Amino acid sequence: MLFCTKAITRLGKRADGTTVSDFTIVSQQVQSNVQTEFGAANRLVLNLESGSGLKKTVCYDLLTGIDGAITATTVYTAQSDVTLTDLTEASFRLVDPDSNKIWSYNGGGEGPQSYYDTIQKVTNGFYRANKQDETAVGVPVSDIYSVKGGVCVGDASLYHRFLTVPVTGANNTANVCINWYQQELKANVATDAGTAIIGVHDGDYYNGLKIYANVMAAQGFRAPEEVPSTSYELRWEGWGWENNWTVDKFIGKLDSLYAQGVRQIVVDDCWYTSAGDWELHPDKFPNGAADMLRLTDAIHERGMTMVLWWRPMDGGRESGYYVVHQATASKLLAEHPEYFVKNEDGSFAKLTGPGSGQNGGFNGSTGYALCPYSEGAVQSQVDFVTRAITEWGVDGFKSDYVWGVPKCYNEAHNHARPEESTEDAAEIFYSAIYEAMTELDPDVFHLLCNCGTPQDYYSLPYVTQIPTADPTSVDQTRRRVKAYKALTSDTFPVTTDHNELWYPSSVGTGAVLIEKRAFADGSAQAKEYEKWLGIAAEHELYKGRHIGDLYAYGIDPYETYVIEKDGMTYYSFYKDGKYKPSGHPAIELKGLEPDRYYRIEDYVNGTVIAERVSGAEASFNVSFSQYLLLRAIPLND
């Protein structure tokens, strides 16, 4: 593995457009067994100066408790006041003579929606900004890797900092770095620019993301370590009906869904009057709460849980409109305009789609953004959550359509900087609603969907399940499952979104299977759905342990996933995605105990592939068209 670090030579741009990159080392120190906020480390400190008078100190800590992990903290000092618009650090280059075999994980959430794959091959001319700002949520990490190994670079901040983690490809190399936005330097005052997390690894992006997650966990940032059993339930979502549903239609579908194995029901969009108010729409609930309770009671009587869709931080619009249903004017906006994010010109800021910008248009049925720095705004949505649980019998929430919060210029909120509304939305808003949910019901279910883009990393402490969020291909959804397992834990529940093409991908990756369509009883689609629900419920791989470091995407012959469950090892081989082998390479089962023998079964079709295979040489030939789902059962002799 060959890396060329440029972290000590490059700064970026000043406000006048000039770039400073002529730093030279003037001194250095090495320290052993230093205690840091991330744990014990061996430290290298470099002091550098440029011809322009800028100085910087870069502190590299090699963390001894996390294999492959390095943190790099940069501090700048200027001779006079200066504004730096871009600060580029932790720059690495991966060299491989075969440019066709360099891959990248791209955590940025820049738009348009559902456009970018997170895993992309790095070819000459490749570029992804991997942006995180008011227009883009995502994971502030990028990773580049090949058969030689890989390196990830990410931001150590505990909040949604404005930055990019760009990946570029040129001359058969891949480059990754971190680029922090605007920094004001005062004359002769040391200014902490930021801390980058660097992970050097073998294998693919899973190992890089795992290092990043472990470093973040060392400073207390992680997804919930225990989640309720409701987060593993097989789910059916009413969105397949869109607006064409009634309470009686829902109730009439419950028995057949239960018989198929479904245990969780989502009442999706169109149930409410206006966002922000979140009151029951009389077209759907003519008797108000009595009708909602009739529905939730029917769900509970069948031993199922009820999840309600909503859109956090959406305060609605000033007038009624029809997108997927007839929404009314927001009473919250009329009565409490002080709750809302405002643009620089004093207008209300819209919840736009990914990449749309501060002054973009509404996205679908979104409204104006509530500001997390308004206590009244936060409390109004906490009140809704409380009402839904205590008065309507709701068991959980599907929080949808969240891509970022606009910068806020509302003077009533006393922002130190307009970016605060974006940076702290998760820590203030998501934490408040999640705390309210869990106080009322410790077994509450909660997911947050960033439709079509990577998961908002800073939402992870406040969810009990992660969706793959409107993937556009089977391999895209599978790779997202693997990434989210790395970023949370190998047992944290992840769900693949609803489509029959996803059934083998959901089961094989250990994801929770969900569906939204209402098939006619006895139809071919219903039978296929029942088949995969049965397979999912029988093996419950979504409750198993994901093993992500045995196979590398783009390097091993097949796209492969491994789950350990009940003493057995489950393998899923796919060749229906963008990365696929030519012909039929041998199937190799990695990770088995070398001194044991195994029976290999195709658990989907109920057939035995091999009666007795040595764990030391678990390789054999079998042909398949799209997927092959196997399990290795250890033999006692």
Search tags:
single chain; 637 residues; alpha+beta; nine-stranded antiparallel sheet; eight-stranded parallel sheet; 10 helices; 19% helix; disordered N terminus
Written description of the protein model:
The chain has a nine-stranded antiparallel beta sheet, covered by helices on one side. Strands 26-25-22-21-20-29-28-27 form an eight-stranded parallel beta sheet. It is 19% helix and 29% strand. The chain has 637 residues and is of the alpha+beta class. α1 (205-218) runs parallel beside α8 (474-487), α2 (247-260) runs parallel beside α3 and α5 (375-390) runs parallel beside α7 (425-440).
Shape: globular
What is the typical, i.e. mean, pLDDT?
A: 93
Strand sequence of the main sheet, in spatial order?
3-4-5-6-19-14-13-9-10
Largest pleated sheet: 9 strands, antiparallel
Helix content: 10-25%
Give me the number of helical elements: 10
Rounded to the nearest angstrom, the radius of gyration is: 26 Å
Outline the low-pLDDT stretches: 1-9
Structural class: alpha+beta
Indicate the proportion of strand residues. Answer: 25-35%
> How many beta-strand elements?
37
End-to-end distance = 42 Å
Write the topology of this structure:
Elements: E1 12-13, E2 19-20, E3 24-36, E4 39-49, E5 55-63, E6 69-77, E7 82-84, E8 87-95, E9 103-106, E10 119-121, E11 127-128, E12 131-132, E13 141-146, E14 149-155, E15 163-164, E16 167-170, E17 173-180, E18 183-185, E19 191-201, H1 205-218, E20 235-237, H2 247-260, E21 264-267, H3 289-301, E22 305-310, E23 321-322, E24 326-327, H4 331-335, H5 375-390, E25 396-399, H6 420-423, H7 425-440, E26 445-448, E27 466-467, H8 474-487, E28 494-496, H9 503-508, E29 512-515, H10 524-539, E30 545-547, E31 559-565, E32 568-574, E33 587-588, E34 597-602, E35 607-614, E36 619-620, E37 627-634
